Input
Amino acid sequence: MSSDRRRTRRGLLLVVSSPSGAGKSSLSRRLIGEHPDLSLSVSATTRAPRPGEQDGREYWFVTPEVFREMVAEEAFLESAEVHEHSYGSPRAPVMRELDAGRDVLFDIDWQGAQSIALAAPQDTVRIFILPPTMRDLAERLHSRAQDSEAVISRRLGRARGEIAHWPEYDYVIVNDDFDLAYTQLAAIYHAERLKRARNLWVEPMVAGLLAEP
Output
């Protein structure tokens, strides 16, 4: 997209949610990697880094005390408690991207999705990723070998409650085949970018066309 059109385009907030292990992070990373106008909103969290994670890349890792200070200062677009830890999306950088005509992806849970949709209802597109079966979800959580058995058990116990929020989303994708699920995710993103209300440059362009002799 040309810089002129980007400046007169309103960005969108693409919110992707799923129960842990259903594939939202892998799908989101691929979408961001193939679309330069889309960036990931890096959340702050009070949980400890997993192996290979870096501060400021996957998350901003902060103490519970710092997180509470940020909440008090209204520095988050949304914040929530998930699996005994706090997560929040910094407000200022997200809104700067939106106003500049760039898109922001949120890899968050249903609570955060609710808050973002309330804060920016016209800018938010919500997508829920489902596993094909609960057994498949359990196998994925075990295969990634990042959590203890106790943590995996808690995540599986909460998965049904998370899935119950699917009607709140604009789109639902079943991640049975990763490539197919990605194709569907990319198609949704492309269609939402083309919506007339987000492309502010169209109206003056059409006016110019109609004014031509």
